[in-house]
Amino acid sequence: MADPYDLLIRYYDAENAGFVEDFAAYALLADRFGGPVLDVGCGTGRVAFQLVRQGVRVTGIDLSEKMLERARARARKQGIGPKQFTLHEGDIRQMALDGPFNLAILTYNTFMHFLDHRSQIEALERIASLVCPGGGLALDLPNPIETFGAPDVPGLVLERTFGDPETRQPVFQQSLASLDRVSQVMDLTWIYDRMAPDGQINRLMVPLQIRYTFASEIELLLERTGWSGIECYGTYDFDPYEESSPRLFVIATRNSGAP
User: Fold this and answer.
1) pTM of this structure
2) Residues ≥6 apart with Cβ < 8 Å to 98
3) pLDDT digits (tens, 9 = 90+) for 90-117
4) How many helices (H) and strands (E) does the chain have?
5) Helix (H, G, I), strand (E, B) or coil at 230
6) In what helix (H) or strand (E) does residue 161 lie, and over which residues does it extend?
7) Contact indicator for 30, 103 with CB cutoff of 8 Å
8) What is the CATH number of domain 147-211?
9) Residues whose CB is less than 8 angstroms from the CB of residue 185 and which lie 6 or more positions away in sequence, other chains included
10) Domain boundaries, the chain
11) Is 210 helix (H, G, I), strand (E, B) or coil?
12) 218-239: per-residue pLDDT in tens?
């Protein structure tokens, strides 16, 4: 099965171009914990490049070869060298990396790609082994409460529109989702419809699975895997986490002992 992010690479940066709301939060965390920073699921470097501009050394890891190719091209274009930004292709649970890091980040929804407790624990333990004692971890997740309380939507949902970076033709991004409330796993299909001037529709369908995690659940997972001082926020402004919060933004500190 093809990597979903290899499929949507054409549109990825264009659809996320306006997403800057979390930049200030990661800048503050980098100031708090220091560098170097490990960016797990770095993609094309949306957050990593902001930290590099802040003077922080970043190591990124991602499963998608095409996303990393885009990140490397961006680094070359901006004159950013390997001493500032290093990239690795692979699974964080199995990858050999040179640490330690003072901060590890899993930005917007990255942690959702670990689909069960076993894989979540493996990832968190591995990250803990790479972060120095007293170092930090940031996990950015959607608040699952609204999703689990709402009825399933049986049809397509229009998420956003944006311009195709190659042709400037309008692209309509839609989603089709089905949530298993027992496993907490959502089967999601992103549908990109690009409309040519003659009205012809070019369609790209990208299927993937993601898992929702509740606040109490993530706290237990972190405590089990070598993290403490767990802070749960509901926004990138570090507002208290509440039932109606848009995000579940979690900060934790690496224990002094082994997980």
Assistant:
1) 0.93
2) none
3) 999 998 898 899 999 999 999 999 999 9
4) 8, 11
5) strand
6) strand 157-163
7) yes
8) 2.20.25
9) 115, 179, 209, 210, 211, 212
10) 4-145+213-254, 147-211
11) strand
12) 999 999 999 999 999 999 999 9
The single-letter DSSP state of residue 152 is: P
Residue 162 token pair = 């944006």
CB atoms within 10 A of CB 169: 13
H-helix or E-strand spanning residue 28 = helix 23-33
- Nearest in space to 179 (alpha carbons), one of 148, 158, 145: 148
Residue indicated by tokens 């990597």: 3
Query: What are the tokens at 66?
Result: 């095409």
Residue with tokens 């961006």, as numbered in its chain: 74
Give first-to-last CA distance, the chain, whole Å.
34
**So what's the pLDDT on residue 110?**
97
Cβ atoms of 37 and 105 within 8 Å: the answer is yes
**Is residue 259 over pLDDT 90?**
no
CATH class of 4-145+213-254: alpha beta
Which pair of tokens denotes residue 177? 């989702």
**Amino acid, single-letter form, for residue 128:** A
179 alpha-carbon distance from chain centroid = 20
The residue type of 228 is: S
Domains 4-145+213-254 and 147-211 fall in the same CATH topology: no
pLDDT at 125 over 60: yes
Percent of the chain's residues with pLDDT above 70? 98
Q: What is the Cα–Cα distance from 27 to 175, expressed in whole angstroms? A: 31
In whole angstroms, how far apart are CA 152 and each of 109, 181, 212, 243?
Answer: 20, 11, 15, 19
Structure tokens at 233: 């926020």
